[in-house]
UniProtKB/TrEMBL annotation:
Similarity comment text for this entry: Belongs to the ATP-dependent AMP-binding enzyme family.
Record's keyword terms, sorted: Ligase
PANTHER family (UniProt xref): LONG-CHAIN-FATTY-ACID--COA LIGASE (PTHR43767), NONRIBOSOMAL PEPTIDE SYNTHASE PES1 (EUROFUNG)-RELATED (PTHR43767:SF1)
Domain AMP-dependent synthetase/ligase: 19-381
Name of this protein: Long-chain-fatty-acid--CoA ligase
Pfam families registered for this protein in UniProt: AMP-binding (PF00501), AMP-binding_C (PF13193)
InterPro entries named among the record's database cross-references: AMP-bd_C (IPR025110), AMP-bd_C_sf (IPR045851), AMP-dep_synth/lig_dom (IPR000873), ANL_N_sf (IPR042099), ATP-dep_AMP-bd_enzyme (IPR050237)
AMP-binding enzyme C-terminal domain boundaries: 431-506
Single GO molecular function: acid-thiol ligase activity
Highest taxon, organism lineage: Bacteria
Length: 525
């Protein structure tokens, strides 16, 4: 009789296959440093064995601090092999914000990249639990290279299931504290495999990709893991550098890249861009915000490739709807309104529009967008109530309001939650307001998103001053510098006498936003 059982394909199984079948193929590079698949697998095994020496058991967390790096990839895969959960950290956060995430994740291990060494000292005083810290600094309990050299490069043999968590990515919360989105092996494998079916240009062994999105975002982590799972060479950029991007895209067999529209805009502003060679590029995927018709036309003139818009969120492992290349062609051929859409359900994904009572609305009516696919998160880490309010029978409540037309296209209209998306970064105004109310001159404050040509949305602080107080935008910015990450600090300030509230005292942010979004088709960027 045939043997039957649960033998899931896990992320690291794919890179192990390439290590056997294409051992000398380059899979990762950053600057002058390169790794082949065989070298990657050996270093992954070494880190996995090192983690096991700390008595790591499945489900325990390992945090990673620093700009994009090859070590991120090694850690993701080592965590996959031992059933640990990788928690890449937003290195731009203030020390107290970083400590909150590390403490909340109950991380057993913190890997600190060289790019973040200066953050380590101010971070230490805020850590509440005992964390094993690994870095290249001699002051730490474990020195990265010396620690790893103690362990062999044999593959650990641990049986894991498809629902084993692999990533925990933090997304800002409406209460001011970020929430850890737990994604499983199955979630990520579904995103990778179903994404391959959707792509006009499918990834393949020997092709290259450029990882420019931050690896603490699903866009960055998902792109990296997808590339490695497909046998590609992923060229990692520590941060987004438009000139470096142009050089690498010309010099390598890069066929598909992922960017936010703001990145596309910055690249197109480089002098002499029209003389660069992009003949190898077949598709640019973008997300986080829509693309304008003028920017799309300019981008197509320069890159001469297909474009696709992806709509999803961390809670769906980036998976949801897609505005495919054919939709973009139709938009340029006389249906520009399609560019305001985030597309139709992706392969294997379902979408429905719901009212506040949990009932599905009629076609054309505005409701909250719910997404469901095999990529839907397991849960928020240690937050049962938040999970219950955001996840219903596998349906993720996006917090975005929109409608669906007769052809099935989804159009975003507003944000039920107060989140602002600026240049691809998710920012919850509550976090910013909590910082601003500490200023002695501020009696009341509301932070909203307003249209911005470059970033889709920008933050505006609407402030009521305390009696006999004054405040300038420059003073506000300086006050916030040590309290929240730089990208969360509003650069615009508006002083008013009183914030609009309803009879129960609830702040009416929709009224504050309305004048800035008047004449636009959607109330979000």
């Amino acid at each position: 009789m045939p043997i039957r059982g649960n033998f899931p394909v896990l992320i690291h199984n794919l890179t192990e296959f390439y290590a056997r079948s294409y051992p000398d193929n380059t899979c990762l590079s950053l600057g002058d440093k390169q790794l082949t698949f065989s070298e990657l697998d050996a270093q992954v095994n070494q880190l996995a064995n090192a983690m096991l020496s700390l008595e790591f058991s499945p489900g325990q967390r390992v945090a990673i601090l620093g700009e994009n790096s090859i070590e991120h990839a090694i850690c993701f895969l080592a965590a996959s092999k031992v059933g640990a959960v990788a928690v890449p950290l937003n290195y731009r956060l203030a020390p107290v914000e970083l400590a909150y995430v590390i403490n909340d994740a109950e991380a057993r291990l913190l890997l600190v990249m060289d790019s973040a060494l200066e953050q380590l000292t101010p971070l230490r005083e805020h850590l509440s639990a005992k964390v094993n810290i690994v870095s290249s600094s001699s002051d730490d309990s474990l020195h990265w290279q010396e620690w790893l050299e103690q362990f062999d490069q044999s593959a650990p043999q641990i049986e894991l299931g498809r629902d084993t968590p692999i990533l925990q990515l933090y997304t800002s919360g409406t209460t001011g504290n970020p929430k850890g989105v737990v994604l499983s092996q199955y979630n990520m494998m579904s995103t990778i495999m179903l994404g391959n079916l959707t792509a006009a240009c499918r990834p393949n062994v020997g092709s290259a990709g450029i990882g420019i999105a931050p690896l603490f975002h699903i866009g960055g982590a998902g792109y990296l893991l997808s590339g490695l799972a497909n046998g590609m060479h992923i060229i990692i950029h520590e941060t987004f550098d438009p000139m470096k991007f142009l050089d690498d895209i010309e010099q390598n067999p890069v066929e598909v890249v992922f960017m936010v529209p703001a990145m596309i805009m910055f690249i197109l502003q480089i002098p002499g861009i029209e003389k660069r060679d992009f003949s190898g590029v077949k598709q640019i995927a973008y997300g986080a915000s829509p693309i304008s018709e003028s920017l799309l036309r300019q981008a197509i003139d320069i890159f001469k490739c297909d474009f696709a818009q992806l709509y999803g969120m961390t809670e769906t492992a980036g998976y949801g709807t897609v505005l495919v290349q054919n939709d973009h062609a139709k938009a340029l051929a006389g249906q520009p309104e399609l560019l305001r859409s985030c597309g139709r359900p992706n392969i294997g994904a379902s979408v429905k529009l719901m009212d506040s009572h949990g009932n599905e609305v009629e076609q054309g009516e505005i409701g909250e967008i719910w997404l469901k696919s095999n990529s839907s998160m397991l849960h928020y880490y240690n937050l049962e109530a938040a999970t219950a309010s955001s996840l219903t029978d596998g349906w993720v409540h996006t917090g975005d309001a929109g409608y669906q037309d007769e052809e099935g296209y989804i159009y975003l209209k507003d944000r039920i939650k107060d989140m602002v998306v600026s240049g691809g970064e998710n920012i919850y105004p509550t976090e910013v307001e909590n910082a601003l109310v500490q200023h002695p001159g501020i009696a009341d404050v509301a932070v909203i998103g307003v249209p911005d040509e470059k970033f889709g949305e920008a933050l505006l602080a609407v402030v009521v001053l305390a009696p006999e107080q004054s405040l300038t935008a420059e003073e506000m910015i300086e006050f916030c510098r040590d309290k929240i990450a730089g990208y969360k600090i509003p650069r615009q300030l508006k002083l008013i006498d009183q914030l609009p509230r309803n009879p129960s005292g609830k702040l009416l942010k929709k009224e504050l936003r309305a004048p800035y979004w008047e004449g636009t088709d959607r109330g979000i960027g």
